[in-house]
Specification:
The protein is α+β, with helices and mostly antiparallel strands. The chain contains eleven helices and 20 strands. Keywords: Ascorbate biosynthesis, Oxidoreductase.
Length: 405
C-alpha cells in the first residue's frame, strides 16, 4: 500500500505509486531499467528537507537511506555514499581527521540531496556545497553507471555537481576535504543600520559571517565563525575582530568545536522559507526594498526573521552563484502560518534585482523565467537529454522548471 510522503516543514504532501529503498547500486539499476521499460518515473529523494516540489511524483520515490557511509579515503578526499546524512557524515569524517570546508545551517539533509539543490553556508571564500564535489557516480536514465570527474566524462562535471536529480540517481560522491579543524562561534545583536554599514568589513575580517534581521524589533543578530588555530580562509582574512562601534551588546562566545558541530544549528520549530541569490552589488538596494515592504505590508504577520549570507562565485551550470559573487536573502516563516502572499511579494522584489531562486525552497519561477538567468542553461538541457533521453526522472513539476512552454 503506497504511503504518503510529507516533507520536513509539512507543506509538501503527496502519495507516490511506489516507494523503493535500494541497498546497492545494482538494485538502483534494476529500478531504473524497470521504470524505463514501463514508462514510469523515478524520483530520488534525500531527507525531505526541501520545501520545493522537486521530489513530488505519482511514480516511484527512491530513498538511498540504506546507502550511507564513507567508502574510501585518499589524502584530502573521501568517497561517500549518496544517502549519507550530513550530520553522520561530519562525525565520520572527523574521526578520520577530515572535514568539509564549509556547511549550511542544517545538517538534516543527505549529501546527494544537499549538493543536488545547491545547499550553501556563508563566507566570501566559500562556494555552495556542490563546489566541494570532485567526482559524481550516478545511474543514468538508461541504467548506465557513469563516473563523472575531471578525468572521466569531464564535460559533464559542471552539470553533475548540481543536477536537481534529473541526470540520474547519485549513488556516491567524492568530496574535496580539509584536515579537521575547530571553529569559534560568536554572536551579538546590533541595530540594522550599524550592521549594514559594517557588513563589508565584517565579511572581510571573518571566515564566516551572516546576520538575521528581525522585523518586529528592527534589530539584527550577527553571527561569526573563525578558526581557533588562526588559519585564515583562502588567505584573505587578516583579522578576526568586531569593528569599532558605540556598543549595543557585547559579542559572546557561543561554542568552540569541530565544523560539523559548530556550523549547523538544531531546529525544533518548523518553518517555510523563500531564498534568492543576488549579485552582491545589488544587495544593498534589494535589501532596502525588502525591508521597506516587510515593515509596511507584512510586519504584523512576518514574525520570523530574514537571513543574509554570502557565497563565492563558481562555474557549475545550474548553481545560483554561477559566474558572480552572491549575497543571499532568505525570508523564514512559521510553518503553521500562511506564507504565499508574503513570499510572492518578496519574490517580486528579488526578481527585480536579478535574483536566482534557491532550488530547494519556495519559489514560483518556471523554465521561461529561469533560462535568461543561467548562462549555461542550454548546455545543462543537452546533458539532461543525453543521460535521461526517455524522461525517467522528469516529473510534471520538473518539466515546468526545466522545459520552456
Amino acid at each position: 500500500m503506497p504511503r504518503p510522503f510529507v516533507n520536513w516543514s509539512g507543506s509538501l504532501t503527496f502519495t507516490p505509486s511506489g516507494y523503493a529503498e535500494p541497498a546497492d547500486e545494482d538494485e538502483v539499476r534494476e529500478l531504473v531499467l524497470r521504470a524505463r521499460e514501463s514508462g514510469d518515473t523515478l524520483r530520488p529523494v534525500g531527507s525531505g528537507h526541501s520545501s520545493s516540489p522537486l521530489v513530488r511524483t505519482d511514480g516511484t520515490l527512491v530513498s538511498l537511506h540504506r546507502m550511507v557511509g564513507v567508502i574510501d579515503k585518499a589524502g584530502d578526499q573521501a568517497t561517500v555514499r549518496g544517502g549519507s546524512r550530513l550530520k553522520e557524515l561530519g562525525e565520520g569524517l572527523y574521526k578520520a581527521g577530515l572535514a568539509m570546508e564549509n556547511l549550511g545551517d542544517v545538517d538534516y539533509q543527505s549529501i546527494a540531496g544537499a549538493t543536488a539543490t545547491g545547499t550553501h553556508g556563508t563566507g566570501l571564500g566559500f562556494g555552495n556545497l556542490s563546489t566541494q564535489v570532485a567526482e559524481v557516480r550516478l545511474v543514468t536514465g538508461t541504467g548506465e553507471v557513469l563516473d563523472v570527474s575531471a578525468t572521466s566524462n569531464s564535460e559533464l562535471l559542471p552539470a553533475a555537481r548540481l543536477s536537481l536529480g534529473v541526470l540520474g540517481v547519485v549513488t556516491q560522491l567524492t568530496l574535496d576535504l580539509e584536515p579537521s579543524y575547530e571553529l569559534r562561534r560568536r554572536s551579538w545583536c546590533a541595530p540594522i543600520e550599524w550592521t549594514l554599514d559594517h557588513l563589508a568589513e565584517l565579511q572581510h575580517t571573518n571566515r564566516n559571517i551572516d546576520f538575521y534581521w528581525y522585523p518586529r524589533s528592527d534589530l539584527t543578530q550577527i553571527r561569526t565563525m573563525n578558526r581557533v588555530d588562526g588559519v585564515a580562509a583562502r588567505s584573505t582574512w587578516a583579522a578576526r575582530r568586531v569593528p569599532e562601534w558605540n556598543g549595543w551588546q557585547e559579542p559572546r562566545e557561543l561554542e568552540v568545536g569541530p565544523t560539523h558541530d559548530t556550523i549547523p544549528q538544531h531546529r525544533d520549530l518548523r518553518f517555510e522559507e523563500i531564498e534568492y541569490m543576488l549579485p552582491s552589488e545589488a544587495f544593498p538596494a534589494c535589501f532596502a526594498e525588502v525591508r521597506r515592504r516587510i515593515l509596511n505590508r507584512h510586519r504584523r504577520t512576518a514574525g520570523w526573521r530574514v537571513l543574509v549570507r554570502s557565497i563565492a562565485a563558481d562555474d557549475i551550470w545550474l548553481s545560483n552563484a554561477y559566474g558572480r559573487t552572491t549575497t543571499t536573502i532568505a525570508c523564514l516563516h512559521n510553518a503553521a502560518l500562511p506564507y504565499e502572499e508574503y513570499f510572492r511579494d518578496m519574490e517580486d522584489v528579488f526578481r527585480q534585482y536579478g535574483g536566482r531562486p534557491h532550488w530547494g525552497k519556495k519559489h514560483w519561477m518556471t523554465a521561461d523565467d529561469l533560462r535568461p538567468l543561467f548562462p549555461r542553461w542550454d548546455d545543462f538541457q543537452v546533458a539532461r537529454r543525453r543521460l535521461d533521453p526517455d524522461g525517467v526522472f522528469l516529473t510534471p513539476d520538473l518539466a515546468r522548471l526545466l522545459e520552456e512552454a
